[in-house]
Recover the amino acids of this structure.
């Protein structure tokens, strides 16, 4: 079956016809507003606002002040806290075949506990720079700490003066017991009067949930089995359920981690030194996009460390994402991926 991401469901079509008729806009004009504008005025004086991280529309303005948090994914510390509330999560290898996560939120999000917070690697800084966030971490590799001041981010390192924005948990010993929360990050003075020029991805309207004829499972072998990732598509919810190391990956509060869309991004890799890995962040490469039970093989491109990563289909057109949270799985080119 051909991809149907451009097709809007009947309810949205009726809504567009109603709003277009009341506002004097054509349906095509209304679609352009929905796709490209941060505000969608309605005829009754109300406004729908765009969450630029997820593409979802809300009746309240979304104050765009991103927060990025480096989060541990060692087997022994799962389940983590706060991943279920993240708008985006990046996953990539660090040392020893383990993966690390970078979760991205809006500062206004209410999240009681996020972590354990861990150290940063330089490639995560390049992805974080796309959002110009308040960036939470506990130290980092020498390469990351040497360059972090070059980025347009608010650097919040627990191993320094920013320790007031972190708390200690009691589940494990340091450094696996460091957390933050929205009550702390919403008090960051540097957030005041901070206005960012950010280019969101292009988003579609709502879609009818698609159910493939066969169950869809995405399996990514990052290294050994404890770090194998599996995403199972649930056609009832239109979401992908996450499994890590052969078991359902839960948030500490018991919520099953899931995503509206999963992007697999293939990048070049190399050794920086005897232990540490380097990953490509700038340039272009292969990408596979999973959303609404369907698959697009395409590519990614990023022009500079601070520019936005864009995802293209195999015809070279910008991929339009469905609204909702995103997980981006960044892997070396020889990593085994099946779907």
């Amino acid at each position: 079956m051909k991809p149907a991401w451009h097709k809007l469901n009947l309810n949205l079509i009726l809504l567009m016809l109603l709003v277009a008729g009341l506002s004097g806009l054509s349906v095509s004009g209304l679609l352009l507003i929905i796709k490209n504008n941060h505000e969608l005025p309605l005829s009754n004086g109300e406004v729908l606002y765009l969450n630029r991280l997820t593409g979802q529309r809300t009746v309240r303005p979304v104050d765009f002040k991103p927060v990025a948090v480096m989060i541990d994914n060692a087997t022994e510390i799962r389940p983590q806290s706060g991943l279920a509330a993240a708008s985006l999560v990046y996953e990539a290898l660090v040392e020893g075949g383990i993966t690390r996560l970078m979760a991205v939120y809006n500062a206004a999000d209410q999240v009681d506990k996020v972590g354990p917070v861990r150290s940063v690697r330089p490639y995560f800084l390049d992805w974080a720079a796309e959002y110009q966030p308040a960036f939470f971490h506990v130290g980092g590799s020498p390469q990351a700490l040497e360059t972090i001041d070059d980025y347009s981010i608010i650097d919040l390192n627990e191993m320094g003066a920013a320790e007031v924005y972190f708390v200690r948990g009691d589940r494990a010993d340091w450094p696996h017991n460091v957390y933050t929360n929205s009550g702390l990050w919403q008090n960051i003075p540097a957030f005041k009067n901070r206005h960012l020029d950010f280019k969101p991805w292009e988003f579609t309207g709502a879609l009818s949930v698609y159910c493939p004829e066969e169950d869809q499972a995405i399996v990514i072998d990052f290294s050994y089995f404890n770090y194998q990732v599996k995403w199972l598509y649930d056609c009832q919810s239109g979401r992908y359920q996450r499994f890590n190391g052969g078991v359902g990956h839960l948030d500490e509060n018991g919520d099953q981690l899931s995503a509206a869309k999963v992007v697999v991004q293939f990048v070049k890799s190399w050794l920086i030194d005897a232990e540490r890995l380097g990953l490509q962040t700038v340039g272009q490469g292969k990408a596979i996009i999973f959303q609404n039970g369907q698959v697009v093989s395409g590519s990614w491109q990023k022009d500079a460390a601070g520019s936005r990563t864009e995802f293209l289909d195999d015809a070279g057109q910008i991929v339009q994402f469905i609204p909702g949270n995103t997980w981006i799985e960044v892997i070396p080119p020889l990593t085994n991926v099946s779907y």
Remarks:
- Confidence is low (pLDDT under 50) at residues 1-36.
- The CA atoms of residues 229 and 244 lie 5 Å apart.
- DSSP finds five helices and 23 strands in the chain.
